[in-house]
Amino acid sequence: MQSGSQSSSSCAWEALSLSGTPIPGLETDVLPLLEALGFSSLAQFEEAVIPAEVRTRHVFLLPQPLTEDQAKERIGQLAAQNRPFRSLAGLGYRHCQMPEWLRRHVWENIYWYSPYTPYQAEISQGRLEALFIFQTFVAELTHMEVANASLLDEASASAEAMLFCYRIAQDPRRKQFFASSECLPQTLAVLQNRAEALSWEVVIDDPFRTRLREEWFGALLPYPTVRGTIFDYRPWVQEAQKKGIRVGFACDPLALTILLPPGAMGADVVVGTTQRLGLPLFYGGPHAAFFSTRRAFLRSVPGRIVGLSRDLFGNPAFRLALQTREQHIRREKATSNICTAQVLPAIATAFYVLYHGREGLQKLARKCHLLARVVARAIGKDPRYRVDPGPYFDTLAITTTPERAEHVRKHAFDRGLFLGQRETRETGEILVAFDETVDTGVLETLLDVFLEGNLERDAWKLPRLWEEVTEDLPAELLRKESFCEQAIFRQYRTEAQLVRYIHSLAQKDYSLVHGLIPLGSCTMKWTPAACLVASRWEGFATPHPAIPLDWQEGYQELVAELEHWLCELTGFSSFTFQPNAGSQGELAGLLAIRRYHEHRGESHRKLCLIPDSAHGTNFASARLAGFDVVTLPSDKRGCLDREAWKQAIAQYGEKLGALMVTYPTTHGIFEESMTRLVQDVHEHGGLVYWDGANMNAILGLCRPAELGMDVGQLNLHKTFGIPHGGGGPGAGPVGAIAHVAPYLPSHPWDRRSDRKGGALVSSPLGNASLLPIVWVYLSLLGKEGVRKVSLTAILHANYVASRLDPYFPVLFRGPGGWVAHECVLDVRPWREAAGVGPEDIARRLMDYGFHAPTISWPVPGALMIEPTETETKEELDRFCEAMISIHTELVEIAQGKLDREDHPLRWAPHTAAMVTQERWEHSYDRKRGAFPLPWVALRKFWPAVGRIDHVYGDRFPVVRW
């Protein structure tokens, strides 16, 4: 970048700082930080830190920044272009009533949406308890013994169930999975896509008309079916299990409140989505999927599980159980690539369930069933239609001629109703699904659409119909098993009671409200409130994801603009927004690479090289995409070991399908040899997958495609302003260069796409309602703001590194001795010198009012710090002072000035109960334990529990009440 353009950029940044728009990273006064590092301007800093060979000279075609009011007006125009339909289509999505207290006190509450994943359990007790409630509800509702803390969406959860069945079947000779033809169409598409990568076959058929085969390792049964029908699967399940076939159910949770649960039918695994329990349709997401199974299979469950353990004082304490970040530990041997899931939606579901209780949920279920009965009785009197006799729960399958079906759907469209159909059946079938929000007005409009004015006949009047219908569910399929009888599900029946409980939990969690969350590779930065408003507007929150694209022009325009902006920033030619997590983006990109090679007749290229410093999901994603994985070591500088690289290229060159790299690297440096590595891969016929988790360090500075990257995902919940949600929701769109782009994911509901990749998740845009957040974020930044955001993030990391290096040496440095946006500190010597490890430092930081950095990754025994661009110098200094103070304590322990077995780090974190107990028996005083520096008392955050006994929790796992 020429100095002249940098000068004009500086002027633009100065103008931005006067606009009044609260842009993250642009309000901070960077001059004191620059001066501390010996620079006079950001331009000079950029010249020194970013290697010349990776710096872009591209003139970005991005808009000028908008003010908050301008962005709100523009995003409002886009929302207005999405025609608000009342969806009765079903297909896995239902409208529901999101209570106002749930929106205000949870969904839009920064105490709930800004925390990090609860790996530091002592300061995450609130959301861990909420997730424990979610697990208990799911396990009891499905009549299974254990459940996890949510998955991403129903279709991908069904794919996880398929993988799970293969693991527990323990017969690698079986390579077929059966799925009922009555499953949701998007679920079938995802199953086929995921199975193909593993060389499995998905057999799709009517379970009652096909012979069970010895080749099947598992099966998936819908309950109710896509057409609303409910079946007694017990004889089928018994026969399947005699043949060693593991059986999964895909269920509607509301139906299970009154129907015989899958566990009572002998299910091995149960999945579904909790969308209809409190959340809008959101044009497909985010919603929390669920997964439950038997206790015997607990250690094979994908995703995260919350367990109940105890702290050092014997108090009950929640934690993530059984190493549920196991893909970072087992890597290519991991059973799943799921890292984060849908924590915030799962928490919303938990509180929705607490409010309604068992009786309230059953009342809603019976209402939906009776609504279907009323309409079936009315339409069934018209000879033009045949209503499937069922038995059914809340969905009607209505058969007529193809011409009349098209007429009815169009007439319904004109009246603002969206009715369903399946692509896999004749167009003469109409699906009508009912939900808790359907009222008399909707019913009258619906009947008028079908009966065309005949509604006024006495026999069809609604009051009479309501008097005539009763529940019509088979006695043998009615639920006899009780659920949610525990006190927690019975004591919150008023808004006041529940909101007080919600806030009592929020007070137990550390969030960005309390201070810096310095996690490396996780980018826990502040999201401006202005970015969050539009996601809940009707135009973005209410559309059904199967609505024809022509009727959602606002979403299409928003996605087109976002795709253009992301292509400008990365250099890729196109993006897909289908992946609803970074790990799903990895999988989508690797599947695209695999199909690219297959299309070229090079299906033998099934080897993926991955540096040992990579994110753990990289290894798992590569295996799930059908690749064999070879791990490459790093050298002492944090770069890929050159000798090992040469040997790998010589040995595997002909089989090489992909190299997976993160840039900047997870060691926090701009690796100078990256372009050479990329060239080597291309010369040997492979492609390069770029993990874009660290894109926030190169926005507007480097373009991955210019470095030779072929495919890569962006973690929108890290780089582009989506809050972390305590562990999700997120989004991981994937970009690719032109000749790989055709192999990105497709979807059965996206008729405009001609891509050759299969479906990855339930809806074409994944967590679609999060995209307005990203649109507003980039609109506020503009083309100059993105550059300053990245430079500020790098500046902050180098400032922290320079202050802490004399105390905790920085392990890796790039060109000129600088780090990128994060740094790795060496605390390993203190294990021997003072008997203290990184986990002790992490818990001691809680006493200073901080969340810990990343522990023991990518280097065992080290700390990885990413201060982000949104923190102030004051906050960075506070954190540095805390770390320096801890260093003083380490020295005192090593020198014998503090008792080696009884020191503040040994007993951290110090709770209020601990420091106020009558007797204090430690060798240091209470004040040093709880208030180690003077300023701590000014905004003290008290951990809810003492240090948690993780060993006890794993020896005696308790994962539900």
TrEMBL record:
Biological process (GO), any one: glycine decarboxylation via glycine cleavage system
Cofactors per UniProt? pyridoxal 5'-phosphate
User: Which chain positions lie within coiled-coil regions?
Assistant: none
**EC annotation?**
1.4.4.2
The record's Gene Ontology cellular component field reads:
cytosol; glycine cleavage complex
Which molecular function GO terms apply here? Answer: glycine binding; glycine dehydrogenase (decarboxylating) activity; pyridoxal phosphate binding
Annotated Glycine cleavage system P-protein N-terminal domain residues: 24-450
- Chain positions found as N6-(pyridoxal phosphate)lysine: 718
Q: Which UniProt keywords apply?
A: Oxidoreductase, Pyridoxal phosphate
Q: Which domain of life is it from?
A: Bacteria
Does the record carry Oxidoreductase as a key word?
A: yes
Reaction catalysed by this enzyme: N(6)-[(R)-lipoyl]-L-lysyl-[glycine-cleavage complex H protein] + glycine + H(+) = N(6)-[(R)-S(8)-aminomethyldihydrolipoyl]-L-lysyl-[glycine-cleavage complex H protein] + CO2
Where does the Glycine dehydrogenase C-terminal domain lie?
791-910
| One family name in Pfam for this protein | GcvP2_C
Q: How does it assemble?
A: The glycine cleavage system is composed of four proteins: P, T, L and H.
Query: What family is this protein classified in?
Result: Belongs to the GcvP family.
Q: Which PANTHER family match?
A: GLYCINE DEHYDROGENASE (DECARBOXYLATING), MITOCHONDRIAL, GLYCINE DEHYDROGENASE, DECARBOXYLATING
Q: What does the UniProt record say this protein does?
A: The glycine cleavage system catalyzes the degradation of glycine. The P protein binds the alpha-amino group of glycine through its pyridoxal phosphate cofactor; CO(2) is released and the remaining methylamine moiety is then transferred to the lipoamide cofactor of the H protein.
What protein is this chain from?
A: glycine dehydrogenase (aminomethyl-transferring)
Per the record, the gene is gcvP
